From TrEMBL:
Belongs to the TPPP family. The lineage of its organism: Eukaryota, Metazoa, Chordata, Craniata, Vertebrata. It comes from Pelodiscus sinensis. Its main location: cytoplasm. Keywords: Cytoplasm, Cytoskeleton, Microtubule. Residues 125-167 are annotated as: Disordered. It is found in: Cytoplasm, Cytoskeleton. Pfam families: p25-alpha (PF05517). The keyword Cytoplasm applies. This is Tubulin polymerization-promoting protein family member 3.
Length: 167
């Protein structure tokens, strides 16, 4: 089934997902986690015709017996396996072309990435104007920390314990 649209874009998508989340990956092989992410991000998984279980089964079917990853050729076979499930009313050829169009030119998305916390409690706890005691002296009038100099001689009564005990 070589007559599918824009194989360069399909291979580019394969490489982008293959290296996703792995700093040492060269982009020649894709693991099961990234295969599942590709299927989810490119909307190959629709929850009805193609589920996460189907995606995992196809991955296991196309990879080698002892292998943990798939090559680009195995990736194309996996798409071929999923195509009839995803596009039920079409012929095998049309379904494969449709699934290739879904995948080609896509990149991994970063949905659900944790954002920095902002809110009432955090603002209240980090407001230096409300600091008291020795902590207050570590900041200048504008609320900017003084760094190392703010921590020197912070205790006004340092070394006076022995004098109090001898009384």
């Amino acid at each position: 089934m070589a007559g599918s649209p824009d194989m360069a874009a399909l291979e580019d998508t394969f490489r982008k997902f293959a290296i996703y989340g792995d700093t040492k990956a060269a982009g020649h092989e894709m693991n099961g986690k990234n295969w599942a992410k590709l299927c989810k991000d490119c909307k190959v998984m629709d929850g009805k015709g193609v589920t996460s279980t189907d995606v995992d089964i196809v991955f296991s079917k196309v990879k080698g017996k002892t292998a943990r990853v798939i090559s680009y050729e195995e990736f194309k076979k996996a798409l071929e396996e999923l195509a009839p499930k995803r596009f039920k009313g079409k012929s095998a050829e049309e379904a494969y072309e449709s699934i290739c169009q879904l995948v080609a030119g896509k990149e991994p998305t970063n949905v659900g990435v944790t954002k920095a916390a902002t809110g009432g409690a955090l603002d209240r706890l980090t407001d230096t104007s409300k600091y008291t005691g020795s902590h207050k002296e570590r900041f200048d009038e504008s609320g900017k920390g003084q760094g190392e100099s703010g921590r020197e001689d912070i205790y006004k009564h340092a070394g006076t314990y022995d004098a109090k005990v001898k009384k």
